[in-house]
Amino acid sequence: MSADEAEATDETAGDDPGDAGDSPSADTDDSPSTAGGDTPLSAEVDAGTTHTLDGDAILRLRDLDAGYGDLQILSDVDLDVADGEYVTIVGPNGAGKSTVMKTVFGLTTYMNGTVEFEGESIHGLPPEQIIREGIGFVPQNDNVFPGLSVRENLEMGAYILDSVPEDQIEEIYDRFPILRERKEQKAGTLSGGQRQMVAMGRALMLDPDLLLLDEPSAGLAPDLVADMFDRIDRINDSGTAVLMVEQNAKEALRRCDRGYVLVNGENRYTDRGEVLLGDEDVRKDFLGG
Amino acid sequence: MGTTESSIVDSARARPGLLLVALLGGLLLVDLAAKLAGVDLGPIGGALSADRLGSNLWSGVVIGLVIGLAGIGLSMTYSILSFANFSHGDLLSTGAFTGWGVAFLIAGFGDVPLRALLTVGDAGSATPGDIGAHVLSTPLAILVGLLAAFAVTAVVALALDRAFYKPMRDRDGISILIASIGAALIVRYVIQFVYGSDRRGVTASVEASNLAFGPLGISVNAHDLTIAVAALGLMLAMHFMLQRTKLGTAMRAMADNKDLALVTGIPAERVVTATWIIGGGLAGASGYLYVLLRGTIQFDFGWLLLLLIFAAVILGGIGSVYGAIAGGLVIGIVFTTSTIWIPSDFNEAAAFAVMIVMLLLRPEGLFGGVSTA
Fold first, then answer.
1. N or C, which end of chain B is more exposed by having fewer CB within 10 Å?
2. Residue A34: which residues within 8 A CB-CB, separation 6 or more?
3. How many independent structural domains does chain B possess?
4. Which residues cross the membrane (chain B) (predicted)?
């Protein structure tokens, strides 16, 4: 799938551990010494394998089997996202990370298990109904309507409303000021980073409780990646829960509250992001060392 | 001095086809100028009055508008539903027969048996003269007929979708294309069964039906003018709908990217329904107008016209509404002006030749890559 393409542009998930992990953010506090300080602690406490939350979760997947046609990708996947939580899914190519998100939106072949949002099953609902329930989705590639203006792209995000929510559009312009400048411009003429903002803005039009982001850093120039992650942090800070699939695994785990490591369509590890980052097995097998 | 010359030579080397077409086009233009000037230079030149050229161009525009109007629906179903709809031509016939049935009903009510009116002159022995349908004598009948053509064809198109295309929505384009050929046959032979298979005249002749525009020095047939006004009006309405309404924006969004439209929350089936209503309705209206243009009707005229409509849509860049209109105009004008050089039996071939040449030079079509539903 398209995850392969994403890897080409992905610097931090490279094979060279020392260089890859630090070079994009050498000026931050993530120096080798700090990481070294974390490592002994994390190494003693191995990454967890309990994949569910004790408390309430707004998104709750249990024993989920899904795939495409006859091809099963996910087996027995459990996943929770609590209200306002920031969760990432990482794992090797073909692990089924994007499939989890598509299954939440009913875009895959459902086979078994439960998909619950805010306590009710959303399995079998049409996408426009799932959006109404409060989930926004930003797919990985081709996630804007190129022939529509920026403003029209945003308007389409609120299609199910009777009238265009002007105040929400203003809010999104405030969040992404460049979009206000370019509102009449066709989205197809924007840069990769600006398109990603349009796509996020569109998914935020109904002020969702949960935002699904599929590889938001894919295809972005390296210097824009940190900026994009900062924007996601701010979206999460304003109360929207985020479930993100990211090839840029180290950066994603550093930022998130909890991470899921998916392998061959199954849960492998689940824990707080920094614990996963510190776990020797996770580092070695899934984060390139 | 070398730069411009060498770049011309280079581009000619890179695209010898373009050079050839430019030469040929230039030759035709020189010939046309010579003909208009009345100069006779052996193979080129001859005599051609400006009036004839003007009337050729005008009738080309009128035919082009009808073909362009018909092409809008074909292009929309292609971009939004991802298949080439071969039953589109028979939707033209559907609109023409039902619309003219209604127009006859209003124009000849009371004077002519109902059966003859509703079957567009197939039953009974009513002649177009008896019924007297003409935009100058019975303008209301012509207008209501146009609206009826739109409405009935929209319903038929929607019914075909529910019966054949909706169950196949997730199949590949080729399967649905084949199904649409089947649907085309069904529609065509239902029309033949109901309305008969003979070609007959429809419009009455009215004296002084040419409207003269003194200052401009041209006179225009009242029906041609009606067609041009109606087609342009419908195209403008279409443009407004696409650009200014939420539904139109959703149509453009779906044409851009169906998967994204789905996860954005655009209710796909509602947009598809609207697409059939508008695309089918416009096909019906254009079929009705085509009969107004020709003055005759026959059960398979839409099918025979379909190839030209496809040519227009492909020429304009398949999937683009504006491309369909532009392609229709090009095809229409080539269709009529080519008779200056070649016998009118071959003008359809000329239209296709232009389409093929255009596609060789610009494979994506006139408006290709500009996805506008």
1. N
2. none
3. 2
4. 57-79, 91-110, 140-160, 172-191, 225-242, 271-291, 297-315, 322-343, 349-370
User: What burial letters (b/e) apply to B234-272, b meaning 16+ CB within 10 Å?
Assistant: bbeebbebbeeebbbbbbbbbbbbbebbbbbbbbbeebb
State how many domains chain A has: 1
Boundary-marking domain end, from B30, B48, B66 = B48
In the block, tokens 């851009």 appear at: B256
Question: How far apart are alpha carbons A255 and A276 in whole angstroms?
Answer: 12
DSSP state of B214: G
Task: Note whether B43 and B53 are same-domain residues.
Answer: no
Tell me if chain A has a CB within 8 Å of the CB of B264. Answer: yes
| Greater pLDDT, A247 or A7 | A247
**Parent domain of B40:** 15-48
Dump the DSSP string for B247-281. Answer: HHHHHHHHHH-HHHHHHHT--HHHHHHHHHHHHHH
What residues of chain A lie within 8 A of the CB of B261, using their CB?
Answer: 145, 156
Q: What is the ipTM of this complex?
A: 0.82
Q: Quick one: average pLDDT of A236-260?
A: 93
Q: pLDDT, tens digit, for every residue of B16-41?
A: 777 888 888 888 888 888 888 777 77
- In total, chain B counts a number of residues equal to 373
**A126–B259: do the CB atoms touch at under 8 Å?**
no
* B interface test, pick of A153, A156, A163, A195 with most B CB neighbours within 10 Å: A156
Are B23 and B57 within one domain? Answer: no
Same domain, B175 and B230: yes
**Domain membership of residue A11 as a residue range:** 3-286
- pLDDT tens-digit profile of B167-203? 998 888 899 999 999 999 999 999 999 999 889 888 8
Q: Answer whether A147 sits within 8 Å of B370, measured CB to CB.
A: yes
Q: Which domain CATH number covers A20?
A: 3.40.50.300
Q: Are strands A86-90 and A258-263 parallel, antiparallel or unpaired?
A: parallel
